[in-house]
Amino acid sequence: MLVSIFAAAEFGVAQVSQEAHTADEVIAVDKGWTAAEEKGDVAYVDALLLPEYRSVSPDGSTHSKEAIVANTRKTTPERAAMIEKYLVDHPTDMAVTINGDTAVLTFTAVTDAKKLIRSCDIFVYRGGHWHAFYSQHTDAEKA
């Protein structure tokens, strides 16, 4: 994996390399997103999300880039622990499909011998970097 704009923002590096145009890099960027939200790394989240970014929660509510960045600013050790616990309690398989400069990352849970798509993140590759454009989350386990 190459040094990304997000890692550069985190470490204050002036030189920024392009990210690989691969499924592995999309997963790495998404994992970096989770870590950034846990740590309150607003610069990473702000650089990752496109201005038009939207996230749709299981209840149908929509959240803008501004709301996600503002939420990242509110990170506390308790919130970080909650995120970590959720990830441990809800293991998922990650899969990426790339078509041109668009990548769809799905998070699949296996419960009761069924594969359930829990959520997906859609990324676009612009200026040598993957950027989040849209996320959709479900309560698939409750179905």
TrEMBL record:
Report the residue ranges that make up the DUF4440 domain in this protein: 26-131
The record's section on InterPro entries has: DUF4440, NTF2-like_dom_sf
* Pfam families referenced in this protein's UniProt entry, alphabetically: DUF4440
Biological source species:
Acidisarcina polymorpha
Q: What is this protein called?
A: DUF4440 domain-containing protein
Question: What is the top-level taxon of the source organism?
Answer: Bacteria
